[in-house]
Amino acid sequence: MKALKWIWMIAGVAVIAAGCSKSTIYTDRGELLPSFCREWNPDFQYNGGRCAFNLSGVQRKKVKGCNLSRKQFSYCGDMTPAQVSYSNQVNSSRLDALTLISNSDRSQEQAYLSVNDGFLAEGRRVIPTAFNHVVLRFPSRCTNFGTDAMAGMIEWLGHEIGKAYSGKKFSGIKLVVGDVAAPRGGCLWGHGQRVCHKSHKTGQDADIGYLTPRPGKSSPVEFHQIFDPKPNYWLIKKLFHNPYACVKFVFLDRRNIKKLSREAGSDPEWQTIKHYIQHAAGHHNHFHVRIGSGPGKPGCFSPDLQIAHNSR
Q1: Does residue 184 contact residue 40 with C-beta atoms inside 8 Å?
Q2: Distance between CA atoms of residues 58 and 64, nearest Å
Q3: What does the alpha-carbon distance between residue 274 and residue 186 come to, in Å, rounded to a whole number?
Q4: Torsion of CA 255, 251, 287, 311, to 10 degrees
Q5: Nearest residue to 119 (alpha-carbon basis) of 30, 182, 185, 203
Q6: Predicted confidence pLDDT, tens digits, the chain (312 residues)
Q7: CA 184 to CA 203: how far, in whole Å?
Q8: 148 phi/psi in degrees, rounded to 5
């Protein structure tokens, strides 16, 4: 017990201490200091020594893809010593990461600038454990880093899956997590280095596979197009009720949105959350979940239901 307590205390100190004091990273005009961006933003040099691209709309359309120096399969080399330590502690012990996240200060910033042009400071790794039923689609890519709110949401969702699908016959159920963000965020090339994500830069976007409970069998550990509306409507409602992050949007193919609508029927909750589930091309085999900075109502109190960015 003493050894476990010691590990917990070390983890509590070494765990990603979200963000920095505003007085140390912003100018008097409310702009991010270049020194802070140089430390955390992997695209700082690509942006011309600026925190983000400073281009007009016409110029921006001419910028194709991501920083070519970021065109790589794995981003593990971007990890900070604190992130490596946290990963080792969770992997080598029986600690529930959700406890560590719940005890951390989630009130400070970690995501900076926009989801399309930003970066992530002190990102927290989503790590598969016996508690969360998570399986990573590409574990060796190190693209499983998010804000504390994102990591907390995924951890909590995995716990809820374990509660709802308990017993030996569902022991193989998994929550498949694809790309979230690189350890410091920034430009992230898609798997296979074919196309890059337009978002997934601030740790506030996550690709999550469809929930596929199969009694007596293991869930697929890859994205697939078999969409069972009943368990996935349950999953959607859990997403919008999670206590860690408000959900701005869930991007999904329109055919599966129709299936959800039929499954929801007259459920009054669907009348609220359906506005935040929107069609996006290329999302026929997974959910793309975008969150805000902390817990809250669907849409994160946004008065505008339009998609702010065309994102994949």
Answers
A1: yes
A2: 12
A3: 30
A4: 130
A5: 185
A6: 444 443 433 444 344 444 455 558 899 888 999 999 999 999 999 888 989 876 544 444 445 567 788 888 899 999 999 999 999 989 888 778 888 888 886 567 899 999 999 999 999 999 999 889 999 999 999 999 999 999 999 999 999 999 999 989 999 999 999 999 999 999 988 776 666 788 999 999 999 999 999 998 998 999 999 999 999 999 999 999 999 999 999 999 999 999 999 999 999 999 999 999 999 998 999 999 999 988 999 999 754 444 444 445
A7: 9
A8: -60, -35
- Asked if 138 and 80 count as a contact pair (C-beta separation under 8 A), the reply is no
Q: Are 209 and 223 in contact (CB under 8 A)?
A: yes
Provide the residue type at 235 as one letter.
L
Using the structure block, give the residue that is written with the tokens 């691209």: 53
Using the structure block, give the residue that is written with the tokens 């039929």: 262
| Of 63, 62, 35, 65, nearest in space to 51 by CA | 35
Residue matched to tokens 């109502």: 297
Domain regions of the chain by residue span: 2-301
Give CA–CA dist 96/100, Å, rounded.
7
Residue type, 68: L
What CATH number has the domain spanning 2-301?
Answer: 3.30.1380.10
Residue with tokens 């880093």: 145
User: How many Å apart are CA 123 and CA 279, to the nearest integer?
Assistant: 28
